[in-house]
Amino acid sequence: MNSNTLIKKTGALVLIGAMFFSLCGCSMFSKKDVLAAAREVAENIEDFDADRLLSLSTLSSGSDKAEDLRKGLNGDYLDENTLKFCTAVRKTISFQIKEDTFTAKGKEASVDIEFKLADYKSVLKKDYKNIDELVSAVRNSDDTVKVTYTAKFVKEDGEWLLDNLMGSSFLSIFEFMDADIGALAVDLSKAVKGSGWGDAGSDGYENAKKLSLKVEFSSDITKLAGKGVKMTYSVEKDGKKVWTSDAIELGNDTSIQLDYGTEQNPGAEMKSNCLAAGKYKFTLTADNGTVMHSADVDVKVTIKETTTPSTTSKGYKFYDTNFASKVLNASWANVDQKRVSAASYGSDAAAVSFQFQVDPSVTENLQFAYFYSANVADALKINVRQDKPVISGVAKPIVNANGTFYAMGLKTKSGATMKQGLWILAIFSEDKQTLYGLADCQVLPKPASSYK
Fold first, then answer.
1. Are residues 44 and 162 in the same domain?
2. Which of 355, 344, 347, 423 is nearest to 390 (CA)?
3. Is residue 26 part of a domain?
4. Which pLDDT tens digit goes with each residue over 2-25?
5. What's the number of domains the chain is made of?
6. pLDDT computed for residue 105 by the predictor
7. Domain that residue 89 falls in
8. Are 219 and 247 in contact (CB under 8 A)?
9. Where are the beta strands (DSSP E) in 289-402?
């Protein structure tokens, strides 16, 4: 081989080498820098550092997307409990740079970053009593899922910058922040903003037939709509529980009115046709045991009415002044001609009946109950609110050409006569919260004919 040939071959090798480096040198020398940039991006995704990610990207730090990134990674769009859940998932995140996926062309390059995190969807399929249980389940989960982010870079001023921050591939890493954690999304212990006692005065209630507590919830409560989250409220009187409500579903409204009276509890302690005096306390409790709210109020009774039988010669007395003003006339009926006086029947009476006429404006169905006592002393001990009646029923208004009437009768079985002694009739409003009046009659020891 002569020197010219050697020079020619050597020159050819140099030329080939120059072409090789011109074609491949960029990728070979860029890969290290791109992988380093990808690692820094991954570490700051893992740390939820929005400002650092912005500094590593082409996205303007003053743009709307940049502000969304800051607020999103900071959890500004999340309620307190969902933020706790997302923080727990975030702490399970790890990453791996998939070097074999690296590609580059000129001033553009890309590489896949694989993120591994707790399988939060699997965790959420189970039920939890509170947010702490859910957070613990996330931390202890052995099941994981992988999310791949294809990070794209461009070279600007000699530096590789992330060019698809806030793109769909990037956002897929954070899908767990949109997870629905159901009932646990609301911290039930902080769900009540406040409450107020309806028409109570500054010193509480006076002569109340019903207590009403209006409860205001935070707007977050609507997240529970349709999720089957329920609560009950209990009522205490002077430290002793006297009643618990049925379950009430939460989430349908941001306020709710809780009532207590004889409509809710027919056995409520009454005095002079009002709720008995004392300190009443309402306590709201979620079905998972969380106490959501409690409030108490003082109740006073100042009127002197009685719920014992009347002693008037007519045999009746209407206590409710509004209803009494609409009663036009009233009397014990002369059933089967066995009535002896205005309020007594002979021993041969098979039925008694109290009847009265009212103003036509009265249209409600009245509740009534009959009680029996052998003597006046025992009759005075009867509590028409709490004692069990011999019979009770509903009296509907009877409307005819002569007006509007009510008839409340008591009839024995066929062939029998009324038991001798006192029969006391209690007349209530339709909702049974108000005692309209009392009537009493006596069945005498002898037949009606003996007294004529």
1. yes
2. 423
3. yes
4. 444 433 444 444 444 444 444 444
5. 3
6. 93
7. 21-185
8. no
9. 291-300, 316-318, 327-332, 339-341, 344-345, 351-358, 366-373, 391-395, 398-400
